[in-house]
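Below is one such protein, fold included:
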Amino acid sequence: MAYLIDVLILFPVTLLLIVIFSAAGIVINPNSSFDMPKLVSVISFSSFIATWVLYTSYWTISEGKFGASIGKKLLKIKVVKENGNDIGYNEAFFRNTWKFFQGLELIGILDIFFLFVTEKKQRFLDKVARTIVVRTDLEKEKQVLSLNKAGFGDRFIAKLADTAILLFLLL
């Protein structure tokens, strides 16, 4: 669910990027020799790359600096290294590089498979980056890790819901 919250927060910026790239394509070449399908392809690809950079940067900076994105903070979960230490920008970047593609069936199936087979119920890239998602508790104005990983059932259901909603939005 944290993923869905983050996507909904970034969605207006995504639309703005698409509008900017579309307008730029029309202004730069209003009467060019580009045929319309080629122009649409260039605009679509440029928008896709800009959106990927936006989303990957958002997750990398928020998790690298604070251990959690806005969505994770709202759900009171945090990303840490397997040993319980805070993650840095490298781990955050690595675990989030392909998160933008989470709605794709292959990535979603791979993540669900890893939730079942890994001892700590980690996503595929969490396993590779050696990170886990844990619950946080507020005690006297500071966050303390509860060292219990986020519940498997919660993560599994959230993963299914995120994948279904993203597929619905893309169609």
In short: Helices lie at 2-28, 36-66, 70-74, 89-96, 105-117, 124-129, 152-170. The chain is about 65% helix and 15% strand.
